[in-house]
Structures are given as structure tokens and as C-alpha cells.
Amino acid sequence: MQPKKKTTARKKGFRRSHDALSAKSLATCPNCQEPKLPHHVCPSCGMYDGQEIIKVETK
User: What is the pTM of this model?
Assistant: First the structure.
């Protein structure tokens, strides 16, 4: 079955207005000052909320 009317560029734009990607927000770790995702364990030092959650090996 074919569409009855052509979808205009304006209607396609309205539909696609929510498809844009947004940049991830980063927070700084209070322990090592490295960027990390908010509410996540720091991948650099393994700290979260002032506690060491995971042990990270240093090179």
C-alpha cells in the first residue's frame, strides 16, 4: 500500500527532532581529579563517595 500524500521536510524534521545525540556529562573525581561519569566508580583510582570500591593496579 502506498502513502496517500508525500511527507514534507517539515514533518520529517518534527519527527527527527528527538534523534540528536547529546554529549555525555563528565564530573571530576574528588580524589584524583580525573574526569569520570557522574554516580559511577572512578576508573582511574577506584574510589566512589570517599570509599575505595575496586582496586586499580598502577602501571
Answer: 0.62
Q: Which residue ranges make up each domain of the chain?
A: 24-59
Query: Tell me, what DSSP letter sits at residue 45?
Result: T
For residue 13, which amino acid is it?
A: G
How far is the C-alpha of 28 from the C-alpha of 6, rounded, in Å?
Answer: 49
Amino acid at 21: L
Q: What is the pLDDT of residues 2-45, one digit of tens each?
A: 889 999 999 999 999 999 999 999 999 999 999 999 999 999 99
Q: How far apart are CA 2 and CA 55, in angstroms?
A: 60
8 A C-beta contact, residue 46 and residue 54: yes
14 CA to centre of own chain: 24
